Amino acid sequence: MLPDDLAAPLGALRGRRPEVNLAVRWHASVPSTMDVASTLAAGGAAHGVVVVADQQTAGRGRRGHVWVSPPGAGLYLSFIARPAIAASTFLSLVTLAAGVAVRDGILAAQGLAVDLKWPNDVMVGRRKLAGILAEGLALGTAGQAVVIGVGLNLRGSSYPPDVAARATSLEGELGRTVDRGQVMAEVLAALWDRLAALESGPGDILQAWRAASPSAIGSRVEWDAKSGTTAGIDDSGALLIRTSSGVERVIAGELQWPAFARP
Questions:
Q1: CA-CA 20 to 30 A from 242: which of 12, 75, 103, 255?
Q2: Which of 17-26, 55-64, 82-91, 149-158 shows the highest mean pLDDT?
Q3: Is the model's pTM score more than 0.90?
Q4: Does CATH place domain 215-260 in 3.40.50.720?
């Protein structure tokens, strides 16, 4: 059963937006909401089923990174999407769409405008506020699904030193208590809207993401023993990097952003 502080905002959302057809599954603690949601998706769970947990004991991010998920300190959720378009096209842009949605939700719930950093980081200045993970299941089949994970720091906690040096939280930025239910409801509504918009075409998503990502142009990056300066994203969501030998497209891999390195 959903805690009252989550149930009330979700009920209010259903009242004003009945077309946002969400089914939220609550857990006090799970290893990973992504794993729970992936199992549900493989079993046929519908678009809009959402797994939310108060704590993750083995939360994960991109490329095997750990997402530290202390109890009560963050919003940890995974959203099951059933794209009606080619999932390969959808998956290449869904992380950007989810980043825009998380930004929309934070702005609607708390009035804080945050930045986006390619491909999956939600930032305040040089500190990370949230991360996004998208994984496809049975792509190209009738049962294809994309599971979108969101980890959002709501309040400060006892993070390991390496995390604390580069992380921030909504309450830390705003200097006041944050209603997690309101944040969750607005983020989920925005996810619903941005995923629907993406199926109609990526133009609005790309425009919104570019406007919210100052680091996508003119930032120094390093990868695969190479370095260059970011030059925006193309219409497939790939990061463009200007190097001494020309402009390269990066669609995956581990980028280093020296300007965002731990102090």
A1: 103
A2: 17-26
A3: yes
A4: no
